[in-house]
Structures are given as C-alpha cells and as structure tokens.
Amino acid sequence: MKTLLDEAGIKSYYAIINSNSSSISFDADFPKMGGNHVILVIPTEKGNIWLENTSQEMAYNHLSFSTTDRNVLAVKPDGIEIMETL
User: Three-state SS string across the chain, please?
Assistant: First the structure.
C-alpha cells in the first residue's frame, strides 16, 4: 500500500504500534522499538488518515480496539515522530 501511495504522489508513513489487547504506548521521553504491528498514516490538512492494511474487513480510517487510542512511532524521512491514533 505504501508503494502504491508513493507512486500516486500521496505522502504516507509507516506507523509502528503495539497492538496488544492492553494499551501499551511509546514513552515520549525515550522512544524505542517496542511495537509489534505496522499501520500507515496519511497526513492531511484535516487530520491523519489511518490505514490498517492487514485486515480485509476494516474500512480505511477505522482502527480496531487493539490499535485505537494509543500512540505510534511514525517513521518519517527526516526522523521519527510519536503520534496519537485517537
């Protein structure tokens, strides 16, 4: 999906997340590679669009209970950023 979006000229970032049933977030003061799943985030002027690319049943911009309301480690070309999925 990331490759398709890149070819279409749509900016997106890998978003590493911990998708355990209990909410585990990254520490903003000491982020480390602690995720176990990757989703995509597409930044827009109206807010972020989240893509769960491993589910055949989840609509775009909808996340499951194991990936919503927690933060992600977004991998950008110029570094990382911690973002909230809300």
Answer: CHHHHHHCCCCCEEEEECCCCCCCCCCCCCCCCCCCEEEEEEEECCEEEEECCCCCCCCCCCCCCCCCCCEEEEEECCEEEEEECC
Distance separating alpha carbons of residues 45 and 68, to the nearest angstrom: 21
pLDDT tens digit string along 11-67? 999 998 887 766 667 777 776 667 888 889 999 999 999 888 776 676 656 576 556
Q: Are 75 and 35 in contact (CB under 8 A)?
A: no
pTM: 0.78
pLDDT at 57: 72
Q: How far apart are CA 9 and CA 68, in angstroms?
A: 27
Q: Please state, in angstroms and rounded to a whole number, the distance separating the CA atoms of residues 21 and 66.
A: 5
